[in-house]
Specification:
The chain has three helices and no strands. It is mainly α. It is rod-shaped.
């Protein structure tokens, strides 16, 4: 204590109680402010988590559609590929036929000699 009064002096005790009360009030005010900030940040974080969860669910749905091949582009590409495969030349069959014809001509020329 910095006062020259004795510790049992009622005025000194009242002064110390007043200082202690002020110190406690300032501490409670700081604690209330810190708690209010924590509550506010918790609310913001909770909202962000919900937003991220919603976006993740949207991505999961879109990924499932892509994996099943149900997008319009995939359907168009599949139809185009099917039409191209149906319209292509039967190259292996033509190659086999040319080979057989070549062998037959070779055998015919060999037999003609």
């Amino acid at each position: 204590m910095t006062t020259s009064r004795s510790p049992s002096d009622p005025a000194a005790v009242a002064l110390e109680l007043k200082r202690s009360r002020r110190t406690i009030e300032v501490g409670f005010t700081r604690t209330d402010g810190a708690l209010a900030l924590v509550v506010q940040r918790h609310g913001q974080t909770d909202a962000q988590i919900k937003d991220h969860a919603r976006r993740l669910d949207d991505h999961d749905v879109r990924l499932d559609v892509v994996e099943r091949g149900e997008t319009d582009r995939q359907k168009r590409d599949t139809a185009r590929l099917d039409s191209l495969e149906r319209a292509r030349w039967p190259l292996p069959s033509v190659a086999a036929l040319v080979g057989v014809v070549g062998l037959a001509l070779s055998l015919w020329q060999l037999a003609a000699r």
